[in-house]
Write a structure and sequence with these properties.
The complex is a heterodimer. In chain A, a hairpin with a 3-residue loop joins strand 2 (32-33) and strand 3. In chain A, helix 7 (199-210) crosses helix 8. Chain A has helices spanning 41-49, 64-70, 103-108, 111-115, 135-144, 158-161, 199-210, 219-229, 249-258, and strands at 6-11, 32-33, 37-38, 54-58, 84-88, 121-126, 129-131, 149-155, 165-169, 175-180, 189-198, 234-238, 243-245, 285-287, 292-294, 296-298, 303-304, 307-309, 312-313, 318-319, 324-326, 329-330, 335-336, 341-343, 345-347, 352-353, 358-359, 370-372. Chain A is α/β, with parallel strands linked by helices. Chain A folds into 2 domains: 4-258, Alpha-Beta Complex (Spore Coat Polysaccharide Biosynthesis Protein SpsA, Chain A); 286-372, 3 Solenoid (UDP N-Acetylglucosamine Acyltransferase, domain 1). Chain B is of the alpha/beta class. In chain B, 21% of the residues lie in helices and 27% in strands. Chain B is built from 9 helices and 28 strands. In chain B, a hairpin with a 5-residue loop joins strand 9 and strand 10. The longest helix of chain B is centred in the middle third of the chain and has 13 residues, at 197-209. Chain B is elongated. Classes of the chains: A alpha/beta, B alpha/beta. Chains A and B meet through strand 14, strand 16 and strand 19 of A and helix 9, strand 14, strand 15, strand 16 and strand 19 of B.
Chain lengths: 377, 369
């Protein structure tokens, strides 16, 4: 393998417990989003569009779907002779075997992989967020600041700040303190979990952290504080644009609904920044004479006889006559019979809802988004 | 049945570019159909589902967009180390070559047949859109102990597009007793035949030696060597696309759920992958009885129509009984009825285009109206 300026390491091993039944057999990055995508399509497409062609994907929890999905990476243009996408699950080593103990440990355990490309910089990504970002611009900034580490940040409100890892900076965005979920936040710059390191710096700190038996081997909790203690140069890179953690049923639903507006903040239809995905290759969607569709996103392979309003239908969904779906997300290949009513719900993929099923209607408090899986029915 | 291998041939030599504006810049095989496919996808998908590893495409004219569409053949599993997809123009390289017509095409690409591992030639065109199962045809071919098996469909109600099609006269034992062009005969030949490769190549050499020029006519139809020709009756969906009228009629016929299910439901038709977002219906959208591909943004009214990828129908625009190809924009206020728009057409808001229900109004690609 020849030298690469940047290698991206995508942390995709998380379970995403708060997504409940959706992640029972699926790692969080493989969760569906936006009518056709999986969450991991966003960081992978960002890499492809940013011309980063070497990506290690670190998997651990329920990796089967994810591994099959990524395949040789051709959907993201990553089936390359030199570089490409590499799936990196934990593996047995001479000194024994164990799972990845934390985000930093996952990278440490793949030092040899990164070294093959002899990179100047390593980009750490996660498979948890919906956003479009040109990592190339972040790299320019990182080099311009000659930073040891650059952390991408978004502006949040002070109320939200206590849910995030907050970065306290000087006026020029040089970071002096990392505050994990602070009770009394001092800044509004939240870490997006996107780190760009000089590889030689990161490597030495990963090796150092690994010798500490009490470490949690986590970037936010351990590695960044170590760098700050040693007065390394850390900068915040301000990101502007749509960025959402879709880690809960509520936030996943909200973010899906965000895509419905006429001019959404995150445009899935931008030919200059395509979100690549593995195409389900289904026929054109059929909207029947008696169907009514408005304010919705519908994918190929759907057959709609009912009424769809303010909802997202993934591929292969069938909706029978007299059925009405409002404010809902219907995952792939769900078959909905006749006279079914669905309101403010997420229906898990492959479910079959018989005629007359009522979901989410006649509730006094509609604020909760219902998740319907085969287990929950 | 044991191991057998098919050698696929999609022969475009005889396919005329009869779709007016739609074939100004592309051959018939490359014409978009069914919201997201091109006509060639149907033959290729049928071949893929029969497990074909070698497919040759005999192309002669206007095949640039076809090549762009096919690439390495990945959607049809044809990006192989061994075999795969071969796009073969009639490259003339032998000064002593006296072959003519499509025999020349075959003769000049003999290496393809010699190198492919299969021993059964499957020949298809692209003007018949169907789901013929070549394994079934082959099974019948063996059962009948035939030298050649041709595929036909009995058409109860003949339509104008069947006019130019060859008819097959079948005897009581399922063998062909003759071919002709009698317009009121119901057995329409689907431009599909299979035969053993060695026999096929023998017949090519024989025909060239006798100054012939057209494989089907001179070998199978006239049958100078007394080949045993079986007739396989196909009873599934079949649409003949050989004119603007038949293109339009068969496109809109896909809005009939019965046709839609027959053509698309089992063994999904494979095509070049695009990465469009799912289609978006705005608050003002009114869509009924229509097929839409991905990447569309619908603000206006769409009725009895087929919209390909990336079509924009602005709020206040109205599209009825129309086929709108990729990336067209219909501005607010425009009205289209019985219209075919080729790719990348922009219709400005003050336009009303109304075609005939049989003969639609067609605009060529990349124009503004």
């Amino acid at each position: 393998m020849s030298k690469k300026e940047v290698v991206a390491m995508l942390l995709a091993g998380g379970q995403g417990k708060r997504l409940k039944g959706l992640t029972r057999f699926l790692a969080k990055p493989a969760v569906y989003f936006g009518g056709t995508y999986r969450i991991i399509d966003f960081p992978l497409s960002n890499c492809a569009n940013s011309r980063i062609d070497t990506v290690g994907v670190l998997t651990q929890y329920e990796p089967m779907v994810l591994h099959a999905y990524i395949g040789v990476g051709n959907d993201w243009d990553m089936d390359r002779k030199n570089g490409g996408v590499f799936v990196l699950p934990p593996h047995e080593r001479e000194e024994g075997s164990s799972w990845y103990q934390g985000t930093a440990d996952a990278i440490y355990r793949n030092l040899n992989f990164v070294e093959r490309f002899d990179p100047e910089h390593v980009l750490i990504l996660s498979g948890d967020h919906i956003y479009k970002m040109d990592y190339g611009k972040m790299l320019d900034y990182h080099k311009e600041k000659d930073a040891d580490c650059t952390i991408s940040v978004v502006n949040v409100t002070l109320e939200e700040a206590s849910r995030f890892g907050m970065l306290n900076t000087d006026d020029d965005l040089k970071i002096y303190e990392f505050d994990e979920k602070p009770e009394h936040p001092k800044s509004t710059l939240a870490s997006m979990g996107i780190y760009l390191f000089k590889w030689d710096v990161l490597k030495s700190y990963l090796i150092q952290d690994e010798t500490n038996p009490t470490s949690s081997y986590d970037f936010g909790k351990d590695i960044i504080p170590l760098l700050l203690d040693d007065d390394k140069t850390l900068y915040a890179y301000p990101f502007e644009g749509y960025w959402r953690d879709v880690g809960t049923i509520q936030s996943l639903w909200e973010s899906n609904m965000d895509m419905l507006s006429e001019h959404p903040e995150l445009d899935l239809n931008d030919p200059n920044w395509r979100i690549f995905t593995r195409s389900p290759n289904q026929p054109a969607q059929y909207i029947a004479p008696e169907a009514k569709v408005s304010d919705s996103i519908i994918n190929e392979g759907c057959i709609v006889h009912g009424e769809i309003n303010h909802s997202v239908l993934f591929f292969g969904v069938e909706v029978g006559e007299g059925s009405m779906i409002t404010d809902s997300v219907i995952m792939p290949n769900v078959k909905i019979g006749k006279n079914v009513r669905i309101h403010r719900a997420i229906i898990d993929d492959g479910m079959v809802l018989p005629d007359g099923t009522q979901i989410g209607v006649d509730r006094e408090d509609e604020s909760e988004i219902l998740l319907i899986t085969n287990e929950s029915l | 049945m044991g191991m057998k291998g098919f050698v696929g041939v999609i022969n475009l030599d005889h396919e005329l570019d009869q779709l007016n504006e739609l074939t100004y810049f592309r051959c018939g095989a490359a014409v978009p159909f069914g919201g997201r496919y091109r006509l060639i996808d149907f033959a290729l998908s049928n071949m893929m589902y029969a497990g074909m590893e070698d497919i040759a495409l005999f192309v002669r004219r206007k095949y640039r967009s076809l090549m762009d569409h096919l690439g390495e053949g990945r959607p049809w599993d044809l990006d192989r180390k061994r075999g795969g997809l071969f796009i073969l123009p009639p490259d003339w390289h032998d000064p002593t070559d006296t072959s003519l017509g499509d025999l020349q095409h075959i003769h000049n690409n003999m290496d393809y047949f010699h190198r492919s591992s299969g021993d059964i030639v499957v020949n298809s065109g692209t003007q018949h859109v169907n789901k013929v199962d070549f394994n079934e045809v082959y099974k019948y071919h063996k059962e009948k102990g035939a030298d050649v098996t041709v595929v036909y469909k009995k058409i109860a109600e003949l339509e104008p597009e069947h006019g130019p099609c060859r008819r097959v006269e079948v005897d009581e034992n399922g063998y062909v007793s003759g071919f002709h062009h009698e317009r009121d005969h119901s057995n329409v030949y689907l431009e599909i035949f299979i035969m053993d490769k060695e026999l096929y190549l023998d017949q090519v050499r024989y025909s060239i030696a006798h100054g012939k020029s057209y494989f089907f006519r001179d070998v199978i139809q006239h049958n100078p060597n007394g080949l045993k020709i079986a007739a396989y009756e196909y009873t599934g969906y079949n649409a003949v696309i050989n004119s603007v009228e038949s293109y339009y009629k068969n496109s809109l016929a896909l809005l009939n759920p019965d046709n839609y299910m027959k053509l698309f439901h089992e063994k999904p038709v494979q095509t070049k992958i695009k990465y469009e977002a799912p289609t978006k219906y705005l608050e003002s959208a009114k869509v009924t009885n229509s097929l839409l591909a991905n990447g569309c943004i619908i603000g206006g009214e769409v009725e009895n129509s087929i919209l390909f990828r990336g079509v924009k129908v602005e709020k206040g625009a109205r599209v009825v009984n129309s086929v709108i190809l990729q990336k067209c924009t219909i501005e607010a206020g425009a009205v289209l009825e019985n219209v075919i728009l080729d790719k990348d057409v922009r219709i400005s808001g003050d336009r009303t285009l109304i075609g005939d229900v049989i003969k639609p109004y067609v605009t060529a690609k990349s124009t503004s109206v």
